[in-house]
Design goal:
Layout: E1 3-4, H1 55-61, E2 95-101, E3 106-111, E4 118-122, H2 123-128, H3 145-148, E5 159-162, E6 168-172, E7 178-182, H4 183-188, E8 215-217, H5 218-223, H6 225-237, E9 240-244, H7 252-260, E10 271-275, E11 290-293, E12 305-312, E13 320-324, H8 325-335, H9 337-345, E14 347-356, E15 359-368, E16 370-372, E17 378-381, H10 399-413, E18 420-422, E19 429-433, E20 437-441, E21 450-456, H11 458-478
Parallel strand pairs: 8-9
Antiparallel strand pairs: 1-5, 2-3, 3-4, 5-6, 6-7, 9-19, 10-21, 11-20, 12-19, 12-21, 13-18, 13-20, 14-15, 16-17
Helix pairs in contact: 6-11, 8-9, 8-10, 9-10
The structure holds zinc ion.
């Protein structure tokens, strides 16, 4: 029998457990070496919106998951809907008990099993998350306006019960709404006790020049979801991966980006071309060396992931240089905490002006060399000597210490144990986290080297990873 109580009861009564129902970047103004530049009149089309129809992607996504390989990265369990039948229990068994605390205006729920957890759920949160058709759109999967109008913080349920099979908590409210919360949904949503989304604070593997960069086959990435998942997971954990065997022609960066979502355009268009020109207007179009850098420091929101496709490799020289900026930042913190503090505290200005695909531009932003997140962990490295501006808004007595710290870090980046050199082959697409991995190149001899590059953003990479997790999990369950 459902337990029923009346809102006017104010006594600090902790209700006895309700048993189950029925008893439950082109101007030549940059420092040398210059930044990546696009082709001028030979540039590829800018934004190909038409390419981003999801049909092909949807078809690829529907292919089955190879269950013999396990994913390298796990996100938090995909969020189930309150009324959706659970495919997995997320470690929670059915509901055992619920107690009402009228003074605290909350429910206390426990689950079956030994070492079972219990959790308090304030009534206002439960009412806010009512998934009935009047409160929550069943296909848009979002709250309807009516659900948040006049949300009463002091709301108390009329009736609270656990379904006979122990899978649902059913709450009836005094406005006539009935909310149903499944056992695993409640277990997934335990406020500060909830499992965090691991992609928000990813576990990363720091590396030096002895790292073996993982390779992925281009055609496999276009066709197979597990390969796609593994490549993106590698970008999360190591920040660098190599895609092999792409056709040696323009346009492959688009195809790869479409597997994630879409390209992030810059002032140079949807993609850019890195190649030497007979009369270069910038050092970027030369055969000279390219200092270690991260891309687009003059933007406040620097691009997330760089995709660099080798259409024609350099004959001699032109090796790509890569270094894990996070690893070297940790090394710096250990051997010179003051240098680390200076680089995380003060900001350098970066600027770049010129004219390109979208007319004239003048970008200007400011970043510390080493950016920390709210937990004090390194979340981004920004270094771009070619676009570093003379503007340096710091106390004058800090100028020399800052240069000292910067030189120390920049030199550490180039130590043999940190700096990886790789000669791109025809058809390679080098992919790396632009927030973490610095890249550069050695000088080369021929003028024929041609790379096409583009970016995808981390939000889109993470979104694809979560969606793939759901898809692959579902396929596994269906098998
Ligand atoms: Zn409702």
């Amino acid at each position: 029998m459902a337990a029923r109580f009346i809102g006017s009861v104010v006594a600090p009564v902790l209700w006895p457990g309700l048993s189950r129902r029925c008893s439950q970047h082109a101007t030549g103004l940059a420092r040398s070496p210059g930044s990546l530049r696009p082709l001028g009149s030979n540039a590829q089309p800018l934004w190909r919106m038409g390419q981003y129809t999801p049909a092909a992607l949807g078809e690829q996504l529907s292919r089955s998951y190879c269950s013999t390989q396990s994913p390298d990265v796990y996100t938090a369990p995909p969020q189930p809907l309150a009324r959706e039948a659970p495919s997995v229990g997320h470690g929670f068994n059915t509901l055992a008990n619920v107690k009402v605390d009228l003074e605290r205006k909350e429910l206390n729920v426990s689950w079956e099993g030994s070492g079972a957890k219990s959790q308090a759920y304030p009534f206002v949160w439960l009412r806010d998350n009512c998934h009935c058709p009047q409160c929550f759109h069943p296909t848009a999967l979002g709250r309807l306006p009516s659900s948040t109008h006049h949300l009463n913080v002091d709301v108390i349920a009329d009736v609270v019960e656990i379904s006979a099979d122990g899978r649902s908590l059913i709450v009836q409210w005094d406005d006539g709404h009935e909310s149903e919360f499944l056992f695993h949904w409640l277990g997934y949503h335990r406020f500060d006790q909830s499992l965090d989304d691991q992609l928000l604070y990813p576990k990363q593997s720091l590396w030096g020049s002895d790292v073996n960069i993982k390779s992925f086959d281009f055609d496999e990435l276009l066709a197979e979801d597990h390969s796609l998942y593994s490549w993106l997971a590698e970008l999360v954990t190591r920040g660098v991966a190599l895609v092999k065997n792409a056709p040696a022609e323009v346009g492959q960066v688009y195809k790869l980006a479409e597997r994630v979502a879409y390209l992030r355009a810059t002032t140079y268009g949807a993609t850019f071309h890195v190649m030497s020109k007979p009369d270069p207007s910038s050092v970027g179009y030369t055969t000279g060396p390219f200092a270690m850098h991260t891309d687009y420091a003059p933007l406040s929101r620097t691009p997330g992931v760089l995709l660099l496709h080798c259409i024609l490799p350099a004959g001699e020289g032109g090796e790509s240089l890569l270094v894990d900026g996070f690893k070297v930042a940790q090394d710096l913190k250990k051997i010179d905490p003051e240098a680390f503090r200076l680089l995380t505290t003060y900001e350098f200005d970066y600027s770049e002006k010129g004219t390109d695909c979208f007319g004239s531009f003048y970008m200007h932003s400011r970043h510390p060399v080493i950016k920390l997140n709210e937990l004090g962990d390194v979340e981004q490295i920004v270094i771009s000597n070619q676009s570093r501006d003379p503007m340096l808004r710091v106390p004058v007595d800090q100028i020399q210490p800052i240069y000292h710290a910067f030189n120390k870090y920049f030199n550490m980046l180039q130590l043999p144990e940190n700096l990886l050199q790789y000669k791109l082959q025809k058809g390679d697409i080098l992919t790396n986290d632009n927030r973490r991995v610095l890249h550069g190149r050695n000088s080369f001899q021929t003028n024929a080297r041609h790379l096409e590059g583009g970016y995808v953003e981390w939000d889109e990479v993470n979104s694809r990873l979560r969606a793939l997790t759901l898809q692959l999990q579902k396929n596994t369950t269906d098998e």
